[in-house]
Design goal:
The radius of gyration is 23 Å and the shape is elongated. Helices cover 42% and strands 0% of the residues. It has a domain of 34 residues.
Length: 73
């Protein structure tokens, strides 16, 4: 029998560590908007240095808060 090569294979410590998931699970959804509105959102997102998820979470929170204050549409 030939000797086992020590090259290749799994490396100790490689890969994702357990428990590195987000503190709050997220759910994927799709949103369809006019291209002009996407352009405005993309520009604002870049200006504010936000991720797409963070931008939508912020917009949703602000809108929901405005509804509680009686100022929603």
């Amino acid at each position: 029998m030939a000797e086992q090569s020590t090259r290749g294979g799994a490396r100790p410590g490689a890969g994702r560590k357990p428990g590195q998931r987000a503190a709050r699970p997220k759910e994927a959804r799709q949103v369809t908007l006019r291209p002009e509105l996407w352009q405005e959102l993309d520009a604002a997102q870049a200006e504010q240095c936000l991720s797409r998820a963070a931008m939508f979470e912020l917009m949703a929170r602000l809108w929901l808060d405005s509804l509680q204050e009686g100022g929603g549409e």
